[in-house]
Write a structure and sequence with these properties.
Strand order of the largest sheet: 1-2-3-4-5-6-9-8-7
Helix content: 25-40%
Shape: globular
Largest sheet: 9 strands, mixed
Low-confidence stretches: 232-237
Number of domains: 1
Radius of gyration: 18 Å
Oligomer: single chain
Distance between the termini: 59 Å
């Protein structure tokens, strides 16, 4: 079973930056009967991009469920197979004379730092988003492999004080907006839609992502309504 993919609209944008990005799609949240997103909020689960693009196809969903079940059935064998896929990705990038990086949590939030696969390939960049404060704080304390970068992902239950704390420690926080602003709550916002290479972002910034797919209908607070608030302020003048 091929585990890694290049067929993701967001990670394909890395080609313009000279990067081949390989990602791992598992069945998010509890879709497979196993929870691969233990810190997902209601808004996050409902807005998940699992069905975006090719994800709308049943065969793709079945493949993601099969991968997830395979991981939980025998994690050792899964990591061995995943490592072989990483090597194949490295070899492909060398042929293309491009940089290569890996995002193993495209639709999951698994603690890959526990399985040794990142340390096994120290010369190559791995990165992910996470909703786990425990993981993010470990990253900020430099308790992670040096080639693994994390961006914290805000949800509707994340307190502003936590976001400010992460930024002041040099971390970045991804926030989904209906329209990406330049400043939010007094914090500078950079666009996260131009590419997905989060390890290249300047430190201590809000990474603004525009709502896509199901997220456009969000009413949980997961999506920050900048456009709506701006329109309301204009009407009240």
């Amino acid at each position: 079973m091929k585990l890694l993919t290049l067929n993701n609209t967001k990670i394909l944008k890395g080609f313009e930056q000279g990067y081949v990005t390989y990602g791992l799609h598992l069945a998010p949240s509890t879709l497979s009967g196993r929870n691969v997103c233990p810190n997902a909020s209601r808004g996050c689960a409902e807005a998940c991009l699992n069905t975006a693009g090719r994800g709308i196809m049943q065969m793709v969903q079945d493949a993601r469920i099969n991968k997830t079940n395979k991981f939980f059935k025998n994690k050792f064998e899964f990591v061995l197979e995943l490592s072989k896929d990483v090597v194949r990705g490295i070899n492909y990038s060398l042929k293309k004379q491009m940089n290569v990086c890996f995002r193993l949590n495209l639709t999951s939030d698994i603690e890959w730092e526990r399985y040794g696969i990142i340390e096994e390939h120290p010369a190559y960049q791995f990165y992910d988003y996470t909703k786990s404060l425990k993981r993010m704080y470990k990253f900020l304390r430099h308790d992670f492999p040096k080639n693994y970068h994390l961006t914290y992902s805000r949800s509707e239950i994340t307190e502003l004080s936590v976001i400010r704390q992460i930024l002041s420690a040099g971390g970045n926080v991804a926030v989904v907006f209906d329209e990406v602003p330049k400043v939010w709550e007094g914090m500078e916002v950079i666009s996260g839609d131009e590419h997905d290479l989060r390890f290249k972002d300047p430190r201590g910034k809000i990474v603004g992502l525009e709502a896509k797919g199901k997220a456009k209908q969000d009413d949980s607070g997961f999506v920050v309504k900048v456009k709506s608030e701006s329109a309301e302020q204009t009407q009240n003048k």
